[in-house]
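Case study 2.
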Amino acid sequence: MYETFSTLAGRFGAPYARKLAAASIRMAGAFESASPPPGLRRTVMGLSFPSPVGLAAGFDKRGTLYPALPGLGFGFAEIGSVIPRPEPGRSPGLMAVMQRLASYRAPRPIPLGVSISMNRATPLKQIPMDYLDCLQKLWRYADYITLNLGVRAGPDLHLPENRALLHVVFSAIKRERWALASMDGRRVPIAVKIDQGRGHTADLIDCVREHGFDGLILSGEGKGDKSARLAALERFANALWDEIPVISVGGIHTARDAQERLDAGAALLQVYTGMVQSGPGLVKSINAQLLANSVGYR
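Prediction:
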């Protein structure tokens, strides 16, 4: 039934389908209590995740869906991306998100990640300040923070010509992270999100390794067919596993997709389009299948 309504909503555009999925999550979350089976719990980036399946950034830009997610079987959630100033259709801005997150008291039922980025109109030289502003103001509300490297039709730190600036951003974030941790005694892991579709993935991963971040979120479909994409995930995961866990996002529509990503070496998974297409029952289905398959986590 849900998939029929999702298809109809999608004919009016992706935003309508996502709004239907969000409304379904709120409704289901008010009645469901499908906490992940204990056998799926794992520790990644020093945090305990009840399930390896989380909600990807971009789906819940404001953080309004978070209270409904634990009851649907989610092991974690990532909101945002959050940017300093509001941009229509992209983010309500830093202050609006802060007000929402202030209502979610610790300890939170599942880890809450916050993706941060820059405004499209920000001059290149000012980009580090956008990241620092978000990091400073969101630090107290996040269990982990993700650095989103850029947006289409705007500044993009994926690009080779911005590599020096990327290192400036990374260095500034690392310094500020230690300063904030020394003030409040909290350790907040920091992950970096890389979109394979924008190219230069291996070089960017080397930058993440060089700066010693806590996690890598590998998004996008990349190039080639499904087997080629899984092979790329396995290659990067094997190269980084002892240092940096990989979180896989993009193209996870079924329990089989989830199983294949974990088998390829992903430490955690994030769903987005699969939720839009299949609705709030997707994560419960994935959790059940992962447990039934007795997934051997690395």
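The domain at 32-292 is CATH 3.20.20.70 (TIM Barrel).
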